[in-house]
């Protein structure tokens, strides 16, 4: 069976969905923290940083983020698309994706598996279900 790979548009839509989810979670956590008296600012900063930094790597080790799930795409190991990436690959992948931003997606249309720079660096590939 030949694998299908998501388009740039599908990957961007997935990223947009994940961004909206993170914003919603930040608002929810902010409202919860507002219910407590004298919550130090460092607690808020730590919680929001943790949410922003851990969301994608954690979900990727399970195969997909919520945005990926909705769009029907999954992240897998490039050498074996039946295996999910491990936490090390997810942690390597995410800061590269964040630091390069849109630049990371420039390679998607230049290779058959539509791998972004962060996929190439971490040994991952996105597949379409």
Question: Describe it for me?
Answer:
By secondary structure, the protein is mainly alpha-helical. The protein has one domain. It contains 5 helices and 2 strands. Strands 1-2 form a two-stranded antiparallel sheet. Helix 1 (8-34) packs antiparallel against helix 2 and helix 2 (41-61) packs across helix 4 (87-100). The model has no long low-confidence stretch (mean pLDDT 92). It is a multi-pass membrane protein. Pfam families: RDD.
Strand content: 5-15%
How are helices and strands ordered from N to C? HHHEHHE
Low-confidence stretches: none
What number is the mean pLDDT?
A: 92
Shape: elongated
Q: Pairing-aware structural class of the strands and helices?
A: mainly alpha
GO cellular component, one term: plasma membrane
Keywords: Cell membrane, Membrane, Transmembrane, Transmembrane helix
Protein name: RDD domain-containing protein
Pfam family, one: RDD
């Amino acid at each position: 069976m030949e694998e299908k790979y998501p388009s740039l548009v599908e990957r961007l839509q997935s990223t947009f969905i994940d961004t909206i989810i993170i914003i919603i979670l930040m608002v929810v956590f902010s409202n919860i923290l507002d219910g407590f008296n004298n919550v130090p600012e460092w607690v808020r900063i730590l919680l929001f940083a943790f949410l922003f930094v851990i969301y994608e790597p954690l979900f990727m080790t399970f195969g997909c983020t919520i945005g990926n799930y909705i769009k029907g795409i999954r992240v897998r190991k490039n050498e074996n698309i039946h295996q999910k990436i491990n936490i090390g690959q997810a942690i390597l992948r995410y800061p590269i994706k964040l630091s390069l931003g849109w630049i990371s997606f420039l390679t998607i249309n230049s290779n058959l598996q539509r791998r972004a720079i962060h996929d190439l660096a971490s040994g991952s590939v996105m597949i379409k279900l």
